[in-house]
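Side project, low priority. Logging it here so it doesn't get lost.
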Amino acid sequence: MRSYDNIPRPHAILYYSQRATKGGMLIAEATMVSETGPIPGVWTKEQVGAWKPIVDAVHAKCGILFCQIWHAGRISNYSYQPNGQSPISSKDEQLTFKVQKTGVDDYEYPAPRCLRIEEIPKIVNEFRLSNAIEAGIAIQKIFCRHIFVHYPAK
């Protein structure tokens, strides 16, 4: 879902309420636990405030909103990292595939750096401090697949 400054926008209220049904469960897009990517997050009070009307709109139709909290890891970009450093991963291998970002330009992922052992508690804490429950999102999944932070065995 498009957002600016990692804050869900009002159009998300309409988007999710249109899809909500009695007893239905909606799965929200991946939701950031820290500012490592350009999508809606749930680590600040302002973000929580923006999620609440979305959750309320789904609940008004007797639906449930399910949230996938995640860290962008290696698929992030330098511009979202503290001090412009490389994104983190369990390996320093750059992803070799490209994606079309605009339909015209190919986007090449930057080379990540290895996550340092002393950084692990910080990332764990970011997930722990997720404010999804405070926003009214009662069901959460830790979204940690697809080569974001970890690297699958070959």
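Brief comment: DSSP finds three helices and nine strands in the chain.
Revisit when time allows.
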